[in-house]
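Dear H.,

Thanks for agreeing to be a second pair of eyes. The structure we're designing against is below in token form, covering all 166 positions.
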């Protein structure tokens, strides 16, 4: 007898044939209703989540922030309202955000926010080239704000950032 791909020789010398394609398919678990579902993921094959930084940043113009302080919350800039969430950046992302979306503007503030205080409404989602950016699907409560700094322009026309906590 000749062994073919997928065959297996038993201890008694006989050959057992198996369906290789079926054996390589993920195993399905039967439910009580008789339909099938894939097995639960194990911890090893769970997708990795990026660690949530303790502080995230929002660039806001002065009039919008003054309105937020008067209202007791920040609902978002016009772009945030159009997108359905408040855009934030991490310490590593905020300089690029300023350069791309706020170039040349000298009426800006940098709002530092405690990410943990935002709860499940804060999600990290892919944006620019697949990088994960923080998006808040709620109004920003002012009690989550750690500090507010001016974001002036330097002599080179770029924004000068205070020291950022990563």
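And this is the sequence the design step returned. I haven't edited it by hand at all.
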């Amino acid at each position: 007898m000749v062994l073919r791909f997928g065959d297996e020789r038993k201890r008694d010398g006989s050959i057992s044939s198996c369906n290789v394609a079926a054996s390589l398919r993920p195993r399905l678990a039967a439910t009580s209703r008789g339909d099938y579902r894939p097995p639960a993921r194990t911890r090893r094959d769970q997708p990795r989540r990026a660690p949530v930084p303790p502080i995230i940043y929002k660039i806001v113009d002065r009039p919008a922030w003054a309105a937020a302080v008067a209202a007791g919350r920040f609902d978002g800039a016009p772009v945030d309202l159009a997108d359905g969430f408040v855009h934030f950046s991490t310490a590593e992302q905020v300089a690029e955000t300023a350069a791309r979306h706020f170039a040349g503007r000298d009426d800006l503030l940098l709002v530092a926010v405690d990410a943990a205080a935002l709860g499940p409404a804060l999600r990290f989602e892919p944006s620019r080239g697949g990088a994960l950016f923080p998006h808040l699907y709620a109004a920003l409560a002012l009690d989550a704000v750690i500090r507010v700094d001016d974001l002036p322009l330097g002599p080179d026309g770029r924004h000068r950032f205070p020291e950022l906590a990563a």
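Two observations from my side: The helical segments are 20-24, 62-71, 78-83, 94-101. Residues 5 and 20 are 8 Å apart (CA to CA).

Warmly,
E.
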